[in-house]
Amino acid sequence: MPLINAIEADATLPDTAGKTRTILARRLADIVCLPASRITPVERHMSGDLLVGILAQSPLELRIRCARRVAPLTDVAPGLMRFLIRDEIEVARLVLEESEALSDFQLVNAARATTLEHRLVIARRRGLSELVCETLLAPGEPEVTARVLKNRTAELSQDGLDRAIELSRSHTELCTDLLKRPELRPSQGLTLFWWAAPAERMKVLGRFAVGREIMQDAAGDLFAMMADEDWQDPLVRKAMQFIERRQRNRAAIDKSPYSSLENAIDTALEIGMDATLAEEISYLSGIKPVTGAQILSDIKGEPLAVLCKSTGLKRDYLIKLWHALKRPIGTAEAPDPTMLATIRCFDSLSSNKAQTVLRYWNWALSSALSKDQLAEIRAPGDLALNQEMSTPERTAALVYGHWNSQDQA
């Protein structure tokens, strides 16, 4: 539907009326286009208002001519500009693509009040502000979101990126462009990892799997202090668990009937993986069972490589765990490509960098969530994301919501 129901000249008017209207429109456009030294703002605005009144009931061709004439100007009557950018896309495109007279306020209003085609044109503009980008991303239109992400001159806010990441769950092709944005934070990259394609997952790991040497050096003396306090401060305890070098849980190993992570994997290979063994492997690896379940249930393999590398397992135990999970292995002549990709991922990571990723997942997917919150997040239905969520809450809602939908499928 066109935004403006433009009509031709009334049939009762004389034949010359159309010509007269066109001439008047041109002359009013001439006045509107005069330099500031020759016309006062009041006259410009009044002339613009008269021109809008005529254009609103004039043919498309005349409106296009006017838009082409106005587009290069830096000082345009606001009413005329508002009319043109809300007109049909053939008219609006001429102004929306190039005009330097458009303010963020005008662009935001146009994005909200017009069509998908208009938003696609706006998304191509150079130098889009955070405010305009957020408005363009708000409707959750994949085409517009992709164009905004590809626009290297656009400035994206963290809220805007969060909207794009949420949309990328159902439109995974957006992950490629998201990973090219310099504004992307570790929390966002390591969240979209879970639904990204294998090549994009490796890009996430290459960008966000970093060492923690600086944090470890800065906090080295605090471990003894926390031990003296019996680790009573839960916030500090969670932060220190992220920083420390040791990944395996010694307390869990001492209590485990398997006595080591390797023995638990050997048992899983012998009798098959079940929920009890998966939980035990999680505890021995120093992560929560809910994080372990997310890793062990992922069918692509990269999270498994991260788990094994971070816990110091050798490559043969990665393959044993792969067998225990009954993943396809192929033949000696033609090994399964997913298994080979998982092994390559394992070989590409250092233990310290893998630990950074694993500990971030464990913190983000479990640290701030109660059992009731996790149950609500993983319940069927639409995700109720909002900007008041903490980083762990938002990450868990996105990841577990996605996992839940996969399970249901």
| Average pLDDT figure | 81
Coarse structural class? mainly alpha
Taken from the alpha-carbon principal axes, the silhouette is: elongated
Helix content range of the residues, please?
55-70%
Spans where pLDDT lies below 50 across 5 or more residues: 1-17, 376-385, 402-409
- How do the SSEs run, as a string of H and E? HHHHHHHHHHHHHHHHHHHHHHHHHH
Q: Rg to the nearest angstrom?
A: 30 Å
- Kindly estimate the percentage of residues that lie in beta strands according to DSSP: under 5%
Number of helices: 26
Q: Largest sheet, if any?
A: none
- Report the strand count: 0
Report the end-to-end length measured between terminal Cα atoms: 37 Å
Can you describe this structure?
The chain has 26 helices and no strands. The protein has helices at 16-32, 41-55, 60-70, 78-85, 89-98, 104-113, 116-122, 130-137, 142-150, 158-168, 174-178, 186-192, 198-208, 213-219, 222-228, 234-243, 250-255, 261-271, 275-284, 289-297, 302-310, 315-324, 337-348, 351-366, 371-378, 391-408. The longest helix is centred in the C-terminal third of the chain and has 18 residues, at 391-408. 33% of the residues are buried.
